[in-house]
Design goal:
Elements: E1 2-9, E2 14-19, E3 24-27, H1 29-33, E4 45-50, E5 56-60
């Protein structure tokens, strides 16, 4: 899934992403930590990886593997 960062809290490392279809998805600190990124900016394009039950497990930039 890909979308745009709608919110990001640097303290808690959590946030929300607005998907291309308009659905807002939250991501936990563990998903941000798994990315290796140090920060996100509002409006930044990201890719969300999820597990079998739909929990976001990683937030990465679309250009990263």
């Amino acid at each position: 899934m890909q979308g745009t960062v709608a919110t990001f809290d640097e303290t808690t490392r959590t946030g929300t992403v607005l998907l291309d279809d308009g659905v807002e998805v939250t991501f936990p600190a563990a998903a941000f930590d798994a990315s290796g990124l140090r920060h996100l900016r509002l409006g930044q394009r990201v890719r969300l990886d999820h597990d079998d039950v739909g929990t976001v497990i990683k937030v990465t930039l679309p250009t990263l593997p």
